[in-house]
Amino acid sequence: MSSNDYKQFFNEQSFWQKLQKFGKAAGVQVAYSALLLFYLMKEPSVSLKAKVTIAAALGYFILPTDAIPDLLPIVGFSDDLGVLIFALSQISGNITPELQEKAKTQLRVWFKEFDEAKLDEIHSKIF
After folding, report:
1. Are 38 and 32 in contact (CB under 8 A)?
2. What is the CA 22 to chain-centroid distance, rounded?
3. Integer Cα distance of 50 and 116 in angstroms
4. Residue by residue, what is the 3-state secondary structure of the chain?
5. Which structural domain, as residue segments, surrounds residue 66?
6. Burial call 80-110: b when 16+ CB within 10 Å, e when fewer
7. Which of 56, 61, 78, 88 has the fewest other C-beta atoms within 10 Å?
8. What is the pLDDT of residue 14?
9. What is the pLDDT of residues 77-87, one digit of tens each?
10. Is 79 exposed, middle or buried (0-12, 13-18, 19+ CB in 10 A)?
11. How many CB atoms lie within 10 A of CB 77?
12. Is the pLDDT of residue 122 over 60?
């Protein structure tokens, strides 16, 4: 299945269900990366080409059968994180400080407190 084939699996309801069910297990880095992509998808200024990339990455994240099953502790979301970071790196010019703060605000709801250095690791890979 090519990366573009995954875009058919993205929809907003499935995205929120997956994050609410597995967000804590996936960890702050996966949740943050997914949230950044989701909020980018909602931005009218983001190009259609970028939105196709986002839909494909989020579709892969949502798809219940991926390369490494999400039920495996720690490694289960490593493939998801790789796909999300790759997509973010392709469209990093669209990521604004406002979008980053929006994603952090949602993380605070789920994780209460988290190590911001984990987000810096993500930023170092996408910018």
Report:
1. no
2. 12
3. 27
4. CCHHHHHHHCCHHHHHHHHHHHHHHHCHHHHHHHHHHHHHHHCCCCCHHHHHHHHHHHHHHHCCCCCCCCCCCCHHHHHHHHHHHHHHHHCHHHCCHHHHHHHHHHHHHHHCCCCHHHHHHHHHHHC
5. 3-126
6. bbbbbbbbbeebeebbeeebbebbbebbeee
7. 78
8. 84
9. 788 899 999 99
10. middle
11. 24
12. yes
DSSP 91: T
The residues near 95 (Cβ < 8 Å, ≥ 6 apart) are 36, 40, 88, 126, 127
Q: pLDDT > 70: what percent of the chain?
A: 83
Which structure tokens are listed for 60? 């892969």
C-alpha–C-alpha distance, residues 94 and 80, integer Å = 21
Q: Which residue has the tokens 């490494």?
A: 68
Residue with tokens 């949740």: 31
Residue type, 90: Q
Residue 74 has which token pair? 């720690």
Q: What single-letter DSSP state applies at residue 32?
A: H
Amino acid at 43: E
Residue 5 pLDDT class (50, 70, 90 cuts): low
Give residue 2's pLDDT: 45
